[in-house]
Amino acid sequence: MATYMIKVAGEGLVAKAHKLADPGPTTGSSIIYEVVEVPDGLSAEDVIERFKRFAAPKDRFEISFAELPDAAA
Q1: CB atoms within 10 A of CB 32
Q2: Mind listing the pLDDT tens digit for each residue in 5-34?
Q3: Domain of life, per the record (predicted)?
Q4: Which of 6, 7, 26, 61 is most buried per CB count within 10 Å?
Q5: Is residue 73 assigned to a domain?
Q6: Which residues form the domain of 31?
Q7: What is the pLDDT of residue 11?
Q8: 42 within a domain of the structure (yes/no)
Q9: How far apart are alpha carbons 63 and 51 in whole angstroms?
Q10: Angle ∠(24,49,53) on CA atoms, nearest 5
Q11: In total, how many domains does the chain have?
């Protein structure tokens, strides 16, 4: 299982964040989310594509991969 840090910018851009970034709001308008329990073989890009269709909470910054929508959805 892997863990990826995902950055959601205020304007909606979703990108990979630095692996040492702290989850939560940044000093700008971005939020860093920690996506945990990512199955082996999936890349950060796979996680980002699913995260783009996910209504990320503003008060919880650790997300289980199982919460993200399927790639085919």
Answers
A1: 17
A2: 999 998 889 999 999 999 999 988 899 999
A3: Bacteria
A4: 6
A5: no
A6: 2-67
A7: 86
A8: yes
A9: 10
A10: 75
A11: 1
Q: Look at residue 30 in the predicted model and tell me its pLDDT.
A: 94
Average pLDDT estimate for 36-56: 95
Q: Nearest 5 degrees, angle CA 16-CA 45-CA 29?
A: 30
Q: How many residues are given for the chain?
A: 73
> Which tokens belong to 4?
């990826």
Q: What is the DSSP string of the chain?
A: -EEEEEEE-TTS-EEEPPTTPPSEE-SSS-EEEEEEEEPTT--HHHHHHHHTTS---SS--EEEGGGSPPTT-
Task: Report how far residue 69's alpha carbon sits from residue 73's, in angstroms, rounded to the nearest whole number.
Answer: 6
Quote the distance between the C-alpha of residue 38 and its chain's center.
11
Asked whether residue 72 is assigned to any structural domain, the reply reads no
Which residue bears the tokens 């299982």? 1
